[in-house]
Amino acid sequence: MSRKLQWGILGCANIAKGAVIPGLKQSELNEVTAIASRDIDKATTTAEELQIPKAYGSYEELLEDPSIDAVYIPLPNHLHKEWTIRAAEAGKHILCEKPLALTEAEAVDMAEAAAKAGVHLSEAFMYRYHPRYDIIKDLLDSGAIGEIRAIHSSFTFNNSGHSQNVRFRKDWGGGSIYDIGCYPINAARILLGSEPEAVTVQAFFSPEHDNVDMMASGLIEFDGNVGLTFDCGMWAAGRNPLEIIGTTGIIEVPHAYSFPANGASIFLTQNGERKEMPVPSVNAYSEQGDHFASVVLNNAPVRYGVDDAINNMKVIDACLRSAHERIRVTL
């Protein structure tokens, strides 16, 4: 049997317990070996629940474990830089939860640390590893909807009543642009294959939530006079659609980023006729894990390098500046 990548998990966040760890366990090339928390009881309980062999009472202990090849970091945003760099210095490959950092400059520092250590660093945008995005790209490349004229996407949910949520800590990198606005930004950049020229964002900063942006709406301008219009929010009814409008057709993704196993459908409209496109039913977290492992174990080509994460942070920086200063920001 071929070797599998041995993973350690830095933290017991819900995204780790509910999605990433199960995804890694269902994948072909990965094993979850250890989990760490600053509370040993929490780490032990989580390890028992998820059948993880080892539990550590500190992140440092896990990084010292020579059997661990790679770590997944689901910590609050303000801790991403510190623990990515410390993991790199320990010789571990790193899958870091999105957004990679708080700023483009932080992302550059993290990338440089990974390069210096000779380890692979990737941002955990699982949605883009689902095969439906390859199907969408093929449709666009084939001219199925003509020339792209616009992209619209939204990602919203309402957890405004959870006052202790880390998303509502401004100094921890809270806010909807960091948390979920990063998805439409990332998707548009991937689908268009280019970087934005300017951004304009209006946001609602809530005094009840440490003045983080609880809702934001924006326009991101790309070359060729194509724009992404998007909205993101943590105090709004939930949805996450993506729509690509072309000169002759439309591609719709009703559940673009967060979707049930049977809710990954895409729809193509041509000549006024709308039809559902067949899409494989797969676990995107497993696909993400297997791609990561293939890069590390088999030197497979990297689909989305750390440069992509740096460029995404550059756009997020501009969006936040635009929202705070109420200006159009050129890139």
Cα(first) to Cα(last) distance is: 49 Å
Q: Major beta sheet, specifics?
A: 10 strands, mixed
Radius of gyration: 20 Å
Strand content: 25-35%
Helix content: 25-40%
Mean pLDDT rating: 96
Count of DSSP-assigned helices = 9
- The outline comes out as globular
> Could you state the order of secondary-structure elements as H and E?
EHEHEHEHEHEHEHEEEEEEEEHHE
Structural notes for this entry:
The protein has helices at 14-26, 40-50, 59-63, 80-89, 104-117, 132-141, 176-192, 284-298, 306-325; strands spanning 5-10, 30-36, 54-56, 70-73, 93-97, 121-124, 148-158, 198-206, 212-222, 226-233, 235-239, 242-246, 249-253, 266-270, 273-277, 328-330. The model has no long low-confidence stretch (mean pLDDT 96). Strand 14 (266-270) and strand 15 (273-277) form a beta hairpin. The protein starts with a strand and ends with a strand. It is globular, with a radius of gyration of 20 Å. The longest helix is centred in the last third of the chain and has 20 residues, at 306-325. By secondary structure, it is α/β, with parallel strands linked by helices.
